Model the fold of this input.
Amino acid sequence: MGVTIRYATAKIVSKGAVNYRDRVSGHGALGGNSAIERGVGNSGERPPGVAGDGFPTCGLARMVWRWADSMSGEPLTRTGSTPLPRELRDLEHWLELAYDRRLTDGLPVLPPTRAVVDQLVAGSGRAAQESLGEVPPRGGGATVEVIAANAAMAGCTPDFMPALLAAVEAVLDPHFNLNGVQVTTHGCWPLLIVSGPLVEHLGMATAESVFNGGGSRASAALGRALRLVLWNVGGAHPGEPVKEVFGHPGRYAYCVAEHRETPWSALHESRGLGRDESAVTVFACESPHSVAFWGVGSDPEDRLGAVADSMHPRGSNNTHTMGEILVAFSPSEARHLQGHGYTRERVRERLFELSKCRVGAIRSRAGDAPVHYEWWPEEIDQADDEARVPIVDGPEAIHLMVAGADSIPWAAVCPGWGHLGGFAVTRAVR
Amino acid sequence: MEIVDPRGLVAGESSGLAPRIGSAPGDLELGFLVNEQSRNMGPDFYGYTLAIEEALRQRLEGVGVVRVCKPLLSRPAELEQLEELRHVQGVINGLAK
Done:
């Protein structure tokens, strides 16, 4: 019996292949790169009843369905990892091996030699074989030693290890939904925020160019190491399984440190830890969007209005689905706000109010546009274009930090993934 | 120079998955796992599965369909939902691509 229908993509999972490991693969559906028959094109006949205008023909929507023809194919197997040679001849051998085995995302990496990895494990103060969990979507086991190997490739030193391990534990928290973050079409990526005394101890950058490391080894290597863990252990490779449409330059390394001299409470303090503790916070977000205070005076409400305007562009996930968002203030702007009585809490409350949107401003009434968002609060009358909708789940979902050059006032907004995940998780570094 | 593999072991990595069935014997039941029923962004995969179901019914006599929609598109299907699909001969789910 044969049925040939070729038009759209679908994954075909044969009988019995629905297992619980597959639950954590792919875009939160059945599978990532397992038990899947991949589509092979977008040509061919359409199924009866499928009109050209009513169904996708490109991009996300380009799907190729070819099930019946493949029913007699070979059994599907999960691709394994070919063992690496234990010994390297020289550095050149390592570089070729790293590219050949896809142990890097394109940038050169240092060799994870046994001697260096052992030093990094010792720096962690934890046992080499202690497991922090499985990293989706691939499901590789994140032991301390494996994380140390990636840290070695990124150029970490032993005193970076406690922060890196805390970061890995944070992204593996189910609240973060790392599986979705890794493979989503959206351009978000885990931003690693370090705060507390550790910032100074590790020599992390907090001033100029803070979002791209500021020339600090610790800032660059910590972000890079987390990336390599997610790449190598998690298998976050573009195409299959990562479906990110455009990408995020921060995927190479996305780490920032908070100023110790913030006029407000520290970020980790606002999240329940003590001021003198050190912490990492992970939050999946877009690149920082610049907010320069053009055309506004010194009135804090006016200035926060400028920030709020950057929090709700129409194409943002936050604008339509809420979730969480990060706002960074330069030290001088934070001092300005604090000087006018705007504490961290008050700034969050005001931004929450000021960033609300009119339904009519963000949602189309045209043709086949969506008519209902089930995740919006019930009290919002979605038929009323004048109704105002919050763009985050509440004031506490606006994460504030102080960073950047202590020069002219400035701010930056990092939109999140909306209600889909990547929510902030904080871990103390001990 | 000894190196340490940075990839980490995958439990059960070497175990094969169930072989595909060679034909559709007798009554056929298929599952559709859909990311979301409401079309808020991107393709209407739920609507598309309706068209596929119609196509199957025209070409395969006695075909049955089990349709499951995830509660949130970015999260895995619930265990109970996968149980609903366990007995079917094949499962089709949309791929954002």
Chain A touches chain B through 101 residues (CB under 8 Å). Residues 1-79 of chain A have pLDDT under 50 and may be disordered. Residues 3-143 of chain A form one domain. The CA atoms of residues 15 and 35 of chain A lie 10 Å apart.
